[in-house]
Amino acid sequence: PFLRLLEAQLQDQRREHQEEVEALKNQVDAMKEEMEKQQQAFLQTLQLSPEAQVEFGLQQEITRLTNENLDLKELLEKLEKNEKKLKKQLKIYMKKVQDFEASQATVPAERRRHERNMQVAVQRKEKDFQGMLEYYKEDEPLLIRNLIT
């Protein structure tokens, strides 16, 4: 049984190796074809007159730059679209801030001062106390109200 298992594993590895080798051979063949095409194009340009070689080189550079330009235009369009989206979001958030500030202006100043004092007191309590909190039974409604607010 052990030898059969090893044989099966060896056959699987051999099959995988053969598949990998085949894929690599196909890749090499494709690269050879591409290289031959490039060599033929190069030989054709060498047969051209110097002026024609320059013109051919310029045409290839123009093609490359045109493709690059199209890619950059596409990127620019995406960025402009994103900018518009972010501006809309900014307007929404600015409106929310203005609404919040307007609602805060209507809250009486005394209440705001009381809220600030409560926040400071809570912060001090958090810093000063650790563990269980001891309180009188009659202070329970006040503690619950302060915890909720």
From TrEMBL:
Keywords per UniProt: Coiled coil
Coiled-coil portions: 3-103
Protein name in the entry: Unconventional myosin-Vb
Organism annotation: Pelecanus crispus
